[in-house]
Putative tRNA (cytidine(34)-2'-O)-methyltransferase
Amino acid sequence: MNPEPYQPLLHIVLYQPEIPYNTGSVGRTCVAVGAKLWLVRPLGFQVDNYHLRRAGLDYWQHLNWQVVDDWQHLLDELGQRRFWYFTKFATRDLGHAEFTPEDVLVFGRESQGLPEEIRNSAPERCLRIACRSEVRSLNLSNSVAVACYEALGQWRRAGTDVPLPE
């Protein structure tokens, strides 16, 4: 964990991420939009992994991030906030969600997505990012970027008074 360089507008959770490049890219997006990155163990890499920091370039030092040991620890830390679960199994499209500041956006493992028990805990808050049938899903880091900018766009269009990136 590092000192918090900014108050997060969103919380991005990567549940047991496997690929350091994806996590590094997600970290870069989090800095860009003012989100806090949460990593739920076990991780498929070391947090000080060269590839993780390389993908995040020189932005990692500005990232507000934290690693938690398991799903329950994450719930203990963020339990009072609203969670959105991103999964290809959802029937609700990302564009139909109404995001509010400090929402928690949860993304699963690159190889398996989110476990069924997490998805089933709140099916009404499971979201999908629309893709043509030729594509199973978007890359994890791309999915996070799409979701973050959808939330920021909603706030901008609604005139929400939050400090948005320019």
Observations:
- The chain is about 35% helix and 15% strand.
- The chain has a mean pLDDT of 89.
- The domain at 10-158 is CATH 3.40.1280.10 (Alpha/beta knot).
